[in-house]
Design goal:
Order of helices and strands: HHEEEHEHEH
Largest sheet: 5 strands, mixed
Number of helices: 5
Oligomer: single chain
Length: about 170
């Protein structure tokens, strides 16, 4: 009743049609992203992070590609978002990241991967390095996330001064 009052031209769309349209749109966007990445002549930097949902108790890994396109514009695209069913070991992390890299065929253009400071990430990089060939002769830079490092420093500092802050307050 209300739909017809506000928009008489509206016609219902079935959930099957909606699902088909969403899958079609996703496929088109995915193809466009693959074409965009295949046309890139510059290096690609990756960032990845894992987090665990507190209310669902599930873990997720994201992979983001950062690159300059042929018109010299900086781009960043989420190219992987995967659920992790196993523990956060270096092999499991490397396996998930490698799946994404292979899916897009960018192993020969990855120049760096930014991860946080977890020891499993260092282990993952050791596993990934032989399979990723950058344009500078196979060396791939493992960068630690600066924001994560700053967060750890601030937390450590706050634990040291928290008793004094309580007295001041």
């Amino acid at each position: 009743m209300i739909q017809r009052a506000f928009c008489p031209q509206y016609s219902n769309v079935s959930r099957k049609t909606t699902k088909k349209d969403i899958i079609k749109s996703y496929s088109e966007k995915l193809d466009a992203l693959r074409q965009s990445l295949s046309a890139v002549t510059f290096s690609i930097a990756l960032t990845s992070d894992i987090w665990t949902s507190s209310h669902q108790r599930t873990s997720h890994l994201s992979v983001v590609a950062h690159y300059i396109d042929n018109k010299y514009r900086l781009n960043k695209r989420v190219i992987g978002f995967k659920g992790i069913d196993e523990s956060h070991t270096g092999d499991a992390i490397a396996s998930q990241i490698m799946e994404v890299i292979q899916e897009y065929g960018i192993a020969n253009r990855v120049v760096s991967i930014t991860l946080d400071n977890a020891s499993a990430n260092t282990s993952a990089m050791k596993t990934l390095e032989p399979y990723i060939q950058s344009y500078i002769g196979g060396y791939v830079l493992h960068q630690r996330c600066v924001c994560h490092i700053i967060n750890l420093i601030v937390q450590a500092g706050m634990s040291q001064v928290s008793q004094y802050l309580r007295n001041i307050r």
